[in-house]
């Protein structure tokens, strides 16, 4: 199921299509019920995307997850996820939604007693749900307005505001939020005073980052303790929460919200380190950096002509400064685009001369190559000056932003490919593609309704035929590669071993998609077996069952095999299934398999009723038939649901490959290690981490040449990842391991949420699904292995990733040193990250030792207290309060 447009992480209403009542957790019970259609806070739930098509249903009122029990009861009980809380989302041609329990395999339904239960595997009206909009929004999700940035601390919460409200920060800049738990005795002091007393460096840091980062403080003491763990996943207080990701829009309310990530609160004690971390967190995706072929006068003229208004920074630095990135982030979506040009680019001097720039840095806004306004260099020092310069142009250009927004919204349903992702997502996929190469006129006339109608028809008829588009105006090279505007088919073929492969594009060019549909459907490879006699049928069944595959029989009066049946065999790659087509079968054969003689079409599966390990072909079998009355017409989605239900009860997995020989970690040398964990570069990216691979990428800081030193820290990190890769291979995990220089490929690393301060680390990346997960914590064999296993099991959820930047050219050792430059080009004198990590680990060990001593003392005191009277207990209580006060 395509989950692209499902509104995750926002309050929604799940309504039963049969009962027209809404799923809810009523006050006074944990049982899930379907009682009313008020669409208020008691009926609001939140869908949490866990992994792939698995979700959890969480009550918006009390944060409890819907849990399925073995007797079919559904209860809002748990606050921590486990297998009983997970559902697989499915849909049908009517766009009804079904929630299949991952624990029992049964489907969520609303029965006549108004109870929500999971007690059968049907996909009928009783089990069908739809997502509707709440009539009222959650009262705890109000937006928060910012105060003057010149204040010491921006007070985002004052007693009556909850952590939910803090999550509604909508400013586009980076927010650093300090979370406190203020004691009763300290509540006569303001939050600003408490924060400044605990971390004296904050006032000066806020002045230095004025405009780039805003600071906030919130007190969670007035709220119940669950809020700490559920909202920000905080282990203890005080804590530091960063809002660095771009805002997202609630699809119902239109309000913006942002995802948070926690950072080590000890960074507040190291202002230089925190300053660098916050600067790195400022998004870079809103600035187009002109490099290589884009840094020529001709390319720049095209860029200016394509934009309504373009802000340009020309500088001697290699990358856009944090201040300029913050400016682009704040004005994104307001009709003003931002570009950056480094003077060191080969074609930069020609562009500088064409623009008449005499002094660097230079900031200007262009409406055309001749209509431009330049900001004097002396006014580029502060954020306020830059903002004041570009703001009038954003307001002037904002009138057209609605049109652009409409185009963006249309792209949710119409998949436009770029030259960058065409090979991976089209040429290396396992479906037939119809690609329309569009000129500007066709692109403008394209409608969402037309596209969705064609998609639905293709999915219903064939299932394995997909639809995509290429803009010839934006992707001229890709368009010309395949012959210019027109509709073309990219078919599948079969190898000599009957495995799928990508065939050459069909020679025909079609004027419209409707003309190409039949040719695309006809190109689906046919692996079905045509049966002409009873002897052939018996032989097919015996051979299939002997190979431990699931025999599927299609009885049809048609002379040709329906395309949906051809696509069926490619749709369940993890299972062994074989399909035989019997055309115009006689009555005796139909009777043998309990098929009505009058039926023109019938689909049955032959399932084992008794397992015989030695003679699987001779074991008795039963017949499971597709019931048209309950499952609907013979369409690809309905048939797929039927086959998956059968396989869920009678699995037929493909033969496992033989276990790899155990790897002796001590015998790994540099050559075998390089084969296990190669170095990722621009040239080998597609080969190492392309198509449907699951990549485990190590992000390290140092230059590849330092691997020659056996005592270097890069050698130590690399050896750690090599050992993890060897163990993963031994356990037959699906990861492909590699490593990359995160300093050199800084933008690539930042796409995975990895800054310089977070290396060394490892991230998991699926390029086909565009999802990732990054390890947080100490980088060693144990933690890295546990992280990878947790991603596989789903206990660590993956997140969607945006456009992953292309890898750049390799850096010299001198280039890597320049990455550490600050915004003004000066090297910041931060201490080594390893030293800071050692300090943190040392402090944590000291705290654990002290806690153990206190625990032993308390146990000793408790034994004495049994022999004495109660005053001793009061003393112990007072001591506990003091410890909490010291923590703040």
From TrEMBL:
InterPro entries: ER_Co-chaperone, Thioredoxin-like_sf. Residues 834-888 are annotated as: Disordered. Residues 862-888 have a biased composition (Basic residues). Signal peptide: none annotated. Coiled coil: none annotated. It comes from the Eukaryota. Residues 842-861 have a biased composition (Basic and acidic residues). This is Unnamed protein product.
């Amino acid at each position: 199921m395509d989950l692209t447009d499902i509104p995750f992480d926002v309050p929604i209403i799940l309504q039963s299509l049969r009962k027209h009542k809404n799923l809810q957790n009523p006050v006074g019970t944990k049982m899930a019920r379907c009682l009313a259609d008020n669409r208020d806070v008691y009926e609001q739930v939140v869908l949490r995307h866990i992994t792939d098509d698995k979700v959890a249903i969480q009550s918006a009122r009390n944060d409890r997850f819907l849990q399925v029990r073995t007797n079919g009861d559904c209860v809002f009980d748990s606050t921590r996820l486990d297998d009983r809380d997970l559902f697989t989302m499915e849909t049908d041609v009517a766009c009804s939604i079904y929630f299949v329990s991952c624990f029992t395999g049964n489907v969520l339904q609303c029965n006549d007693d108004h109870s929500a239960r999971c007690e059968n595997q049907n996909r009928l009206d009783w089990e069908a749900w739809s997502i509707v909009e709440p009539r009222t929004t959650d009262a705890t999700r109000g937006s928060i307005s910012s105060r003057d940035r010149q204040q010491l601390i921006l007070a985002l919460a004052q007693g009556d505001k909850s952590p939910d409200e803090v999550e509604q920060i909508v400013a586009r800049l980076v927010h650093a939020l300090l979370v406190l738990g203020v004691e009763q005795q300290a509540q006569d002091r303001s939050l600003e005073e408490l924060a400044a007393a605990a971390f004296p460096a904050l006032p000066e840091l806020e002045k230095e980052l004025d405009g780039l980062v805003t600071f906030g403080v919130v007190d969670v003491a007035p709220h119940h303790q669950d809020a700490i763990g559920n909202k920000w996943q905080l282990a203890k207080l005080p804590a530091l929460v960063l809002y660095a990701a771009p805002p997202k829009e609630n699809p119902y309310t239109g309000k913006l919200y942002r995802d948070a990530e926690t950072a080590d609160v000890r960074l507040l004690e190291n202002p230089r380190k925190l300053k660098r971390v916050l600067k790195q967190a400022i998004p870079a995706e809103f600035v187009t950096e002109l490099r290589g072929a884009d840094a020529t006068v001709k390319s720049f003229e095209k860029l200016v002509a394509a934009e309504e208004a373009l802000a340009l920074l020309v500088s001697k630095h290699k990358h856009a400064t944090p201040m300029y990135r913050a400016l682009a982030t704040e004005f994104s979506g307001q009709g003003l685009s931002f570009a950056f040009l480094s003077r060191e680019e080969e074609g930069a001097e020609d562009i500088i001369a064409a623009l008449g720039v005499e002094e660097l840095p230079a900031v200007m806004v262009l409406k055309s190559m001749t209509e431009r306004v330049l900001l004097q260099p002396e006014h580029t020092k502060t954020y306020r000056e830059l903002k004041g310069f570009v703001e009038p142009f954003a307001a002037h250009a904002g009138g057209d932003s609605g049109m652009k927004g409409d185009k963006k919204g249309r792209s949710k349903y119409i998949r436009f490919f770029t030259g960058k992702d065409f090979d991976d997502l089209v040429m290396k996929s396992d479906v037939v593609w119809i690609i329309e190469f569009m000129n500007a006129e066709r692109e403008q006339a394209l409608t969402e309704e037309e596209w969705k109608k064609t998609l639905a028809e293709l999915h219903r008829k064939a299932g394995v035929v997909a639809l995509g588009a290429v803009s010839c105006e934006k992707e001229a090279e890709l368009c010309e590669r395949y012959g210019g505007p027109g509709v073309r088919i990219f078919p599948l073929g079969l190898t000599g071993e009957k495995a799928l492969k990508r065939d050459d594009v069909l020679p025909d060019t079609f004027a419209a998609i409707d003309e190409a549909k039949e040719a695309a459907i006809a190109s689906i490879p046919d692996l079905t077996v045509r049966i002409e006699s009873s002897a052939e049928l018996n032989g097919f069944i015996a051979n299939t069952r002997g190979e431990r595959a699931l025999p599927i029989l299609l009885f049809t009066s048609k002379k040709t095999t329906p395309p949906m049946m051809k696509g069926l065999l490619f749709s369940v790659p993890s299972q062994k299934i074989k399909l035989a087509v019997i055309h115009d079968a006689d009555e005796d054969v139909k009777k043998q398999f309990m098929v009505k003689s009058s039926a023109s079409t019938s689909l049955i599966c032959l399932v084992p009723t008794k397992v015989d390990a030695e003679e699987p072909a001779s074991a008795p079998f039963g017949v499971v038939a597709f019931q048209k009355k309950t499952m609907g017409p013979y369409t690809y989605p309905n048939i797929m649901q039927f086959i998956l239900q059968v396989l869920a009860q009678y699995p037929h997995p493909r033969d496992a490959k033989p276990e790899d020989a155990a790897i002796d970690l001590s015998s790994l040398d540099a050559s075998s290690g390089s084969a296990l964990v190669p170095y990722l570069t621009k040239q080998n990216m597609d080969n190492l981490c392309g198509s449907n691979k699951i990549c485990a990428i190590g992000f390290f800081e140092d230059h590849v040449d330092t691997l020659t030193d056996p005592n270097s820290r890069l050698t130590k990190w690399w050896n750690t990842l090599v050992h993890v890769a060897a163990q993963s291979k031994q356990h037959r995990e699906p990861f492909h391991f590699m490593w990359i220089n995160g300093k050199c490929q800084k933008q690539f690393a930042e796409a995975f949420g990895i800054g310089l301060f977070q290396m060394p680390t490892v991230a998991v990346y699926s390029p086909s699904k565009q999802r990732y997960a990054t390890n947080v914590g100490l980088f060693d064999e144990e933690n890295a292995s546990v992280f990878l296993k947790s991603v596989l099991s789903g206990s660590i959820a993956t997140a969607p990733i945006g456009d992953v930047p292309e890898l750049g050219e390799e850096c010299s050792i001198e280039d890597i040193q320049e990455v550490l430059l600050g915004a003004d080009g000066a090297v910041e004198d931060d201490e080594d990250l390893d030293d800071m990590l050692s300090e943190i680990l040392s402090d944590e060990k000291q705290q654990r030792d002290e806690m153990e001593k206190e625990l032993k003392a308390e146990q000793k005191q408790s034994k004495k207290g049994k022999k004495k009277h109660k005053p001793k207990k009061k003393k112990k209580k007072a001591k506990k309060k003091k410890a909490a006060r010291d923590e703040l």
